[in-house]
Sequence to fold (166 residues):
Amino acid sequence: MPTPSDMTTAGSPGLLDSLQHEVAVFARRAEQTRLGGVGQVRNSMDRAAYLLLNRLDKEGPMGVKALAASMGIDSSTVTRQVAPLVESGLVNRASHPEDGRAVVLQLSPRGLARLEEVRSSRRELMAQLTEDWAPKEREAFCTLLTRFNSALSARQAGASATGESS
Fold:
């Protein structure tokens, strides 16, 4: 493990080694707990379902291709992931308002209620995990994590555009 003095330079191998290690540990722990929340809702919705429902809530009804593009994933993946959400009544398929032949996916009232339940549980988990953090620390962490995720997303988009695997 690098010493604190190894981590003083932004591009130093010590800092970058620590960063990649902490990201790997975070990914493992996040997957183990699935950051599902607390109480009965804990681990009750998988990551793919949560992200799809959240996107439909934030952006409104859309077709499979638009949903896939907005999430940076393949249409066949969205189709596969959304099927159980339709079956369970969390997502509705509806005719496109301008082109009745096309189908749009929309969050059902049941889906919205379920999403809110999971969001609330996950908010509580975040509050518990960061209860001894100052508000500015929470804000800084969120800002940096958002920036990190944006960089990963941009890298993935660039690799997809050039046909490279990431």
The helical segments are 13-33, 47-59, 64-71, 75-87, 109-129, 135-162. The first strand starts at residue 91 and ends at 95. The chain has six helices and two strands.
